[in-house]
Design brief:
It is a single chain. The chain is an alpha+beta fold and 112 residues long. A hairpin with a 2-residue loop joins strand 5 and strand 6.
């Protein structure tokens, strides 16, 4: 299985997937940490995948999404964005709307 196939399988097998540096319990960069905080605040269940565990994965995710930076958030198989986009969407209430529209449960119905 190629790295692209593996990534595609991961993205499709969970409703919300975050490719990040570190893991949700111990983010290893500030940008990954910000996205973890937002998802945790919203109470969104998600799968965190540590790209630092493999150079092939770290490069492969950038090619898969055609996006140069990490973290990368996927919802229901679709690439949503990186840290800045996620933060801006959250502050505008758009991330909450996206999660609701996609049928992703949130423990907190927070507004920005």
């Amino acid at each position: 299985m190629s790295i692209s196939d593996w990534i595609g399988n991961e993205v499709k097998s969970s409703d919300v997937v975050l490719f990040m540096k570190g893991n949700p319990q111990f983010p290893q960069c500030g940008f990954s940490g910000q996205v973890v905080q937002i998802l945790d605040y919203l109470g969104v269940p998600y799968k965190g995948i540590n790209v630092l565990e493999s150079d092939e994965l770290r490069q492969g995710i950038k090619l898969y999404s055609q996006w140069p930076t990490i973290p990368q958030l996927y919802v229901k198989g679709e690439f949503v964005g990186g840290c800045d986009i996620i933060r801006e969407m959250f502050q505008a209430g758009e991330l909450q709307t996206l999660m609701k529209d996609k049928g992703v449960s949130m423990a907190v119905k927070a507004s920005a």
